[in-house]
């Protein structure tokens, strides 16, 4: 008879994150195209603070507000587990989509759209983004951080950032 007391389960819970940046250029004077003019897709990083937040939420701890805000910034330092802020944060907004399940039951999706002039981010080289549980810059817990190739918006341009976190393998 085989002894299973010290057996280790082969099942692992993985988190796979991707951020898609869609840029809509508005300089043509007409309505925006349904298809973005430029698309960037990069993998992001769930920070140590974000992992602790997630574990505590699963455990039922009352740890404060939901991750309902995304921020963008201008500092291109590579994302690291110990990150707690966006060093070059220039704008933070409430998410237009903040839910699990629109693409699959085990996928968390967060979406924010910025307008160049409307959000005072035109002419800035936006190179980083993060998800937070607080509305104010420099406050709250940062769940994830990502850096990407510079996106510079003109006054009439739009930038839509979509974060998808796949919890598990399906």
Structural class: mainly beta
Averaged pLDDT: 87
Instruction: Report on the biggest sheet.
Output: 5 strands, antiparallel
Strand percentage lies at 35-45%
Distance between the termini: 34 Å
Tertiary shape: globular
Protein topology:
Blueprint: E1 15-24, E2 38-43, E3 45-46, H1 48-58, E4 69-73, E5 89-94, E6 97-100, E7 107-115, E8 125-132, E9 142-152, E10 158-167
Antiparallel strand pairs: 1-2, 1-10, 3-9, 4-5, 4-8, 6-7, 7-10, 8-9
General description of the model:
With about 170 residues, the chain is mainly β. The chain has one domain (about 15-25, about 40-165). It is about 5% helix and about 40% strand. It contains one helix and ten strands, in the order βββαβββββββ. It has one helix spanning about 50-60; strands at about 15-25, 40-45, 45, 70-75, 90-95, 95-100, 105-115, 125-130, 140-150, 160-165. The strands form two sheets. It has a five-stranded antiparallel sheet with strand order 2-1-10-7-6, with no helix packed on it. Strands 3-9-8-4-5 form a five-stranded antiparallel sheet. The longest helix has 11 residues, at about 50-60. The radius of gyration is 18 Å and the shape is globular. The chain starts with 14 loop residues before the first strand and ends with a strand.
């Amino acid at each position: 008879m085989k002894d299973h007391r010290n057996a280790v389960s082969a099942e692992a819970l993985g988190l796979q994150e991707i951020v898609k940046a869609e840029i809509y250029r508005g300089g043509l004077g007409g309505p925006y195209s349904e298809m973005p003019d430029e698309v960037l897709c990069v993998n992001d990083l769930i920070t140590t603070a974000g992992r602790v937040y997630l574990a505590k939420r699963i455990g039922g701890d009352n740890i404060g507000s939901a991750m309902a805000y995304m921020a963008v910034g201008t500092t291109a330092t590579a994302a690291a587990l110990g990150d707690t802020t966006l060093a070059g944060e220039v704008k933070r907004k409430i998410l237009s989509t903040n839910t699990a399940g629109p693409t699959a039951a085990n996928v968390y999706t967060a979406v924010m759209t910025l307008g160049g002039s409307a959000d005072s981010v035109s002419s800035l080289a936006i190179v980083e983004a993060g998800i937070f549980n607080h509305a104010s810059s420099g406050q709250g817990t940062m769940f994830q951080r990502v850096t990407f190739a510079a996106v510079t918006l003109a006054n009439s341009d739009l930038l839509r950032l979509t974060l998808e976190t796949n919890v598990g393998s399906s």
